[in-house]
Amino acid sequence: MKVSRALAPLACALFLASCSTAGETVVVTATEWVDPDSGEVVTTEIGAPSAPEDATEENSGATEWPAEYAKVLDDPEAYNFNVPSPGRDEVDHVPDGEYFYALVEANGGGAPELLLSSMSSDEHSNHFARVLVFSTDGGSLQTSGESLIYGAAGAGGSRAGVEASQLGRGLFQAHWVSGTGDGSTVWHDVDGATISAPTEPEEMNVQYPRPGHLTVNWQPTQDRAALDAGELTVSMPEVRGPAPVDEPDVVVEGTVVAKTGAELIDSMPNGEDPASEYLLLQLDAPREFTDHHHAGSVYSRDAEYVSLGRREISARGNERLDGLEWERLQGERVRLTVAPEHVHFPTDTSMPTGALRVSQYKSAEIL
């Protein structure tokens, strides 16, 4: 994926000297005269309008980030990785001299963020890395004062990973057990290079990746190919999904909203608390969708919402959390592109009833 930012073109206007009225100041930026030998009109520039300050700063940040990040990769030992984790994921960290990097979009600023990891091993064969975030979107290099982690424990099967977001907003910190794949994930917003406090942990299984998550592909700091190409080092996770369907992609646009169960339905179907909150992509108008794997058949119906996440309280008082990263995008316009085999309608009465479900996005964009 090539990362680029459009630079505002600078228009150079030609002002010719002329008679001025009283009180006017005439600035001559170019003169024209006729060459007596050739008869051609010759223009001599005296000056050109300078770029606005904000455009200069933006262009500087856009054009200089590869050079700034290259300096970081040239001397990774200069940075302090023993900084707090906003999720309190504390691991003993004694750098072993191994450093890796990745390029992701994490704060929606345009230029990518640099993730720099420092590996550490101990006498128990625990092999974890701490991860710092770097950004140039503020016009200069910023470094996070917090860290995330990834790696594996030497015993017990404990694992940790860092994932990017298809929306280009925030980072996911995951923890799981290698045997079953069961674990939890939290989402951290990223402001500049600052990593925010996490959302509440959501249950997950690494064998069934969640929509909107991207795998981070770490590169040795000596290999600058990705940096030189300006390419994000992320990829779609492998999903155990239904067979592909030979139909066009499904593209939906709408506004991210949060609605309670009471706002969506008169009576909760399974005794859920009516105050349960559901995060939805509300379409501009209901439209028809086709579920190609609906209980072994093809099934079509209209839907007004796409289900994104939830804060649901079950009939027994248990809280079910899912897709909490969407909470901070309420009111935003979003476009989702989905392969047809990854859209479906529930075959049970789970909330929100009637809303379209999506198991993987081809792309997700904030408009």
Q: Could you explain the architecture of this structure?
A:
The chain is mainly β and 367 residues long. It folds into 3 domains: 37 residues, no CATH class; 173 residues, no CATH class; 117 residues, no CATH class. It contains 3 helices and 24 strands. Strands 3, 4, 5, 6, 7, 8, 9, 10, 13, 14, 15 and 16 form a 12-stranded antiparallel beta sheet that branches. It has a 6-stranded antiparallel beta sheet with strand order 20-19-18-17-21-24. The chain has a two-stranded antiparallel sheet with strand order 1-2. A hairpin with a 5-residue loop joins strand 19 and strand 20.
Helical content stands at: under 10%
How many domains make up the coordinates? Answer: 3
Which segments are poorly predicted (pLDDT under 50) over 5 or more consecutive residues?
Answer: 1-34, 42-62
Largest sheet: 12 strands, antiparallel
**Count of alpha/pi helices:** 3
Class derived from helix and strand content: mainly beta
Strand segment tally:
24
Using the alpha-carbon principal axes, give the shape: globular
